[in-house]
Description:
Elements (H helix, E strand, L loop, with lengths): L5 E2 L1 H8 L3 H9 L6 E3 L2 E5 H15 L4 H9 L8 H44 L4
Antiparallel strand pairs: 1-3, 2-3
Amino acid sequence: MSMPRTYSISELAREMQVTTRTIRFYEEQGLLVPQRRGQERIYSLRDGVTLRLILRGKRIGFSLAECKELIGMYDPAGGNHKQLSRFLEKIAGRREQLEQQILDIQHMQLELNTAEQRCQAALRQPAV
Length: 128
């Protein structure tokens, strides 16, 4: 039987395309818990999966607290139903935020267009 795959901090950083500082930050936040061999950190395959989930969560706009909550709900024995349901709720909430931001940006663009048109019209007026 072969040993489960493990990573040094530099191997994990290279594989996930992040800095070792990033990994140490997530470790300080309690999201990654590597084993220690003297001063060396030994990361498991599960740590790699956790880091991948954190990075994906951050890319789609989740806070670190939200990532931590979802990771803490991991329960493969229960089919991860609670985790997946909560994830779907978070996705819906994030989608609503993005839709509101799109509307806000569109409104801001209209305001900028109006301001630009007024400035251009004022510049075309002869000086008094």
